[in-house]
């Protein structure tokens, strides 16, 4: 590519109009920065979560648990006597309440307790493969190793130590009791430091924990390290049936699986900025191309080939993309580091920028950076392709005579209809692994391309309708011009059409989700006030009896949150046993066939139906993990569950108690008596339960849920505004390009007697035709996209179905604003051409 062409054709435009070039670069930069920043934040969160989980759980070869119920002390020596076992560490897990400490939400702070055998950990730490090095206490000052075995001594991590008062050496905690009796306060001495965990965590001796927690003789798990050369799978098969050995769960991989759909959707949302930014690049290059059209024609006559001309335009796009992508990568890294520093408490960083930087650079950066940069460069090259093709196919002699741009190639209507059929078919495809609706995403892309392809046909249809109006010169000119330039309308309206379609789709989806969430909250929270233990343990029976005797409560409904294995040996899922006749069930499917007398009825959420095949009517055998009892269950219905994306089951409380022999209660749902105030009910419960219980009113839970929902989707409002602004700028730039190309046409019409107001009216008619087509196409396309989002993407990604609600008023405002802005942009773009002197324009044409 000759350097002289760049210096004489491209550089003067960049030098004289730097603002437009800077806007295009900024658009690419923001898109790449958002995509790269989201990727870095996701990677940092997963890395830190996995690191924290490895610190708490250690890195054993296998974790041994009982097939049902807890392990016993006798299991530990039996394991250690097996010749393949090199080391073993017994573990008890629990929680304790820290009186006087509150969470940011005003709840009582609970402290995680890990009870281990410190001698076993010290012995393994001396070897090449320590079991859990981050749980080994680090002792300061004169403290010796004996403090590890001192009764009632806690070793705290950094998050817990920050909550201590200066010089504090003792700590009082409230411990739950396994037998359901009231919690007891125990004062501990503060020992050494541990490095595991992000949330407040304490390590204690396991014998001490068994006595204080009422767990004498029982263990939760035993972490096992096998000798060199021992095959873990073979050793697992040699274990007695009462034991269950599994590899340590890779918590980072598990979190990645659970959040993959959310992260993919968030990444696609970030890429929307890059997608809309590409239209800004297209608008800038199209306007620059139209302004330099005589120069392109002249160099074409002088011997510059069409291929060389189009390569120069692509080089401009590549330069914009390369600069924007490089700046975007730097900005994305800065945004990710800043976000990690601000939300350090969530990731265990506590505002330490050095640790934030370490988290960012402790993950693979090259591949995400190259991917985001390639996306930015590809977007700008695609945006530059249409102007490059325009320059390549110009007829130099025709342009030099002032006849403007050649007519664009028409896309046949059947191509748009084919894309519509393909998009509809793809929307019915099931999700691929990890609940990713790839078919739905490709379907939405096909629908967008379909809308763009059908714009010319829509413009011609609207022009044909104008033919039924009383004939007039201006109407005839506007109709014929719109019909002949229908293909150009697709280019000028591409940005605003896509932006409006995405805005409509997101508006309908968010409105539908919010309305469905409100209805679900009304069904799922039928009581006035909810009570649970701050220790995440069963509520004491004396407290329940005292609440039931209070006259201020018209109804006290009991609830038990537990776990259930869908089959023996499988991971347990959430089980809620409640009095199901106390409130409506938010069911989406019901079983109306025959029931199995020997099976207990249960209701499952949509994730259980989709992931585990628990469809209405199915009978399956499940197991209670604590007791090991087996029970036959029949699915009687499927309910909406906006609180989780994993499997959950509801069971009637009397059925649960008969099947499990578990009579404990973990939550209370209270309906107030007539005339009883919420504040008086709270005071009564505080008098009965103190700080050991957590209270939440149904109205507060609804308001908090909706507040979280609105905050989660607030970014989409800004993205919609950015997308519409970019689309409208694209209309201005495209119409400016067409107006510059039509300058001699307007001059000739002025010379033939049309006044400037008449030409303005002509532009208004043309703009109304194209703007109306864009608004109608954007509305229809947005409704189609919203149907895919509501009925395909959300159910496949999150297992959340919803009812579609059309916010008519907001949609009317969106479409009206887009139409008015498109018409205004077209009129604004034509001002310069209409201001040209008619006689001079005709003289130039001569």
From TrEMBL:
Membrane topology classification: Multi-pass membrane protein
Domain ABC3 transporter permease C-terminal, residue spans: 268-395, 721-835
Keyword terms of this UniProt record: Cell membrane, Membrane, Transmembrane, Transmembrane helix
Start and end residues of each MacB-like periplasmic core domain: 495-687
Chain segments annotated as transmembrane: 20-41, 264-287, 317-340, 365-389, 410-429, 441-459, 493-513, 717-741, 762-791, 811-830
Native source species: Roseateles asaccharophilus
Subcellular location: Cell membrane
Name by which UniProt lists this protein: ABC transport system permease protein
Pfam family of the protein (one): FtsX
Cross-referenced InterPro entries: ABC3_permease_C, MacB_PCD, Membrane_comp_ABC_pdt
PANTHER family the record matches: BLL1001 PROTEIN (PTHR30287:SF2), MEMBRANE COMPONENT OF PREDICTED ABC SUPERFAMILY METABOLITE UPTAKE TRANSPORTER (PTHR30287)
UniProt keyword Transmembrane helix, yes or no: yes
Record carries keyword Cell membrane: yes
């Amino acid at each position: 590519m000759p350097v002289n062409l760049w210096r004489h054709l491209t550089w003067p435009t960049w030098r004289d109009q730097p603002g437009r070039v800077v806007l295009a670069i900024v658009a690419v930069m923001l898109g790449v920065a958002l995509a790269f920043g989201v990727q870095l934040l996701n990677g940092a969160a997963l890395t830190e979560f996995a690191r924290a989980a490895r610190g708490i759980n250690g890195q054993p070869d296998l974790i041994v648990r009982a097939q049902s119920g807890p392990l016993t002390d006798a299991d530990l020596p039996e394991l250690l006597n097996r010749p393949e076992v090199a080391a073993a560490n017994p573990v008890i897990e629990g929680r304790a309440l820290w009186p006087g400490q509150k969470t940011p939400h005003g709840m009582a702070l609970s402290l995680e307790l890990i009870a281990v055998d410190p001698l076993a950990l010290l012995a393994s730490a001396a070897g090449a493969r320590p079991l859990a090095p981050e749980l080994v206490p680090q002792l300061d000052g004169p403290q010796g190793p004996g403090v590890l075995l001192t009764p009632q001594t806690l070793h705290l991590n950094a998050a817990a130590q920050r909550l201590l008062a200066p010089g504090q050496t003792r700590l009082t905690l409230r411990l739950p009791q396994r037998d359901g009796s009231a919690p007891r306060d125990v004062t501990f001495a503060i020992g050494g430091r541990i490095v595991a965990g992000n949330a407040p965590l304490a390590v204690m001796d396991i014998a001490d924990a068994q006595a204080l927690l009422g767990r004498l003789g029982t263990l939760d798990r035993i972490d096992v390290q096998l000798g060199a050369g021992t095959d873990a799978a073979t050793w697992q098969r040699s274990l007695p049936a009462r034991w269950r050995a599994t590899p340590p769960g890779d918590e980072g991989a598990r979190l990645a699986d659970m959040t993959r759909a959310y992260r993919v959707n968030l990444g696609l949302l970030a890429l929307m900025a890059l997608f809309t930014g590409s239209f800004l690049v297209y608008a800038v290059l199209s306007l620059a191309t139209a302004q330099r059209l005589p120069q392109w024609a002249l160099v074409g006559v002088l011997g510059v080939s069409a291929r060389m001309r189009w390569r120069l335009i692509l080089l401009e796009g590549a330069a914009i993309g390369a600069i924007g992508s490089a700046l975007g990568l730097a900005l994305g890294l800065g945004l990710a580091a800043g976000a990690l520093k601000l939300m350090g408490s969530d990731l265990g960083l506590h505002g330490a920028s050095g640790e934030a930087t370490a988290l960012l650079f402790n993950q693979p950066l090259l591949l995400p950076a190259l991917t985001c940069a390639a996306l930015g460069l590809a977007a700008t090259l695609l945006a530059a392709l249409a102007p490059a093709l325009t320059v390549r196919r110009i007829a130099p002699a025709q342009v030099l005579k002032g006849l403007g741009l050649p007519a664009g190639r028409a896309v046949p209507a059947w191509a748009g209809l084919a894309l519509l059929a393909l998009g509809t078919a793809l929307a019915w495809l099931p999700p691929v692994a990890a609940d990713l609706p790839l078919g739905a995403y490709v379907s939405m892309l096909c629908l967008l391309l379909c809308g763009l392809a059908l714009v010319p046909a829509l413009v011609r249809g609207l022009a044909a309708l104008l033919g039924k109006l009383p004939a007039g010169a201006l109407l005839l000119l506007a109709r014929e011009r719109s019909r002949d330039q229908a293909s150009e309308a697709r280019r000028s309206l591409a940005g605003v059409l896509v932006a409006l379609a995405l805005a409509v789709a997101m508006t309908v989806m968010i409105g539908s989700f919010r309305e469905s969430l409100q209805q679900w909250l009304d069904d799922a929270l039928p009581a006035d006030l909810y009570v649970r233990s701050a220790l995440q343990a069963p509520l004491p029976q004396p407290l329940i009896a005292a609440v039931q005797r209070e006259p201020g409560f018209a109804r006290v409904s009991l609830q038990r949150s537990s776990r259930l294995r869908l089959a023996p040996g499988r991971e347990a899922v959430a089980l809620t046993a409640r009095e199901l006749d106390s409130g409506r069930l938010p069911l989406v499917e019901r079983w109306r066939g025959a029931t199995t007398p020997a099976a207990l009825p249960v209701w499952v959420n949509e994730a259980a139906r989709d992931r585990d095949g628990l469809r209405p009517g199915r009978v399956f055998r499940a197991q209670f993990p604590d007791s090991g009892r087996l029970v036959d269950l029949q699915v009687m219905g499927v309910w909406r569950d906006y609180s989780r994306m994993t499997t959950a089951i509801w069971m009637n409380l009397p059925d649960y108690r008969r099947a499990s022999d578990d009579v404990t209660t973990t939550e209370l749902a209270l309906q107030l008596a007539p005339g009883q105030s919420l504040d008086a009910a709270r005071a009564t419960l505080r008098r009965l339960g103190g700080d050991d219980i957590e209270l939440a009113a149904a109205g507060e839970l609804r308001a908090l849920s909706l507040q979280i929902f609105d905050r989660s989707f607030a970014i989409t409002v800004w993205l919609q505004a950015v997308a519409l602004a970019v689309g409208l700028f694209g209309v201005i730039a495209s119409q400016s390009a067409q107006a510059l190309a039509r300058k001699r046409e307007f001059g000739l019409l002025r010379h033939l007697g049309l006044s400037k107001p008449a030409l303005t009216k002509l532009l208004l008619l043309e703009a109304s035709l194209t703007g109306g087509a864009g608004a109608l196409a954007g509305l229809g396309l947005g409704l189609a996209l919203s149907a895919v989002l509501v009925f395909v993407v959300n159910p496949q990604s999150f297992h959340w179905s919803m009812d579609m609600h059309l916010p008519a008023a907001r949609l009317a405002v969106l479409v009206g604003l887009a139409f008015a802005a498109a018409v205004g942009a077209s009129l604004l773009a034509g001002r310069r051409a209409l201001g040209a002197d008619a006689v001079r324009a005709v003289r130039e044409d001569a």
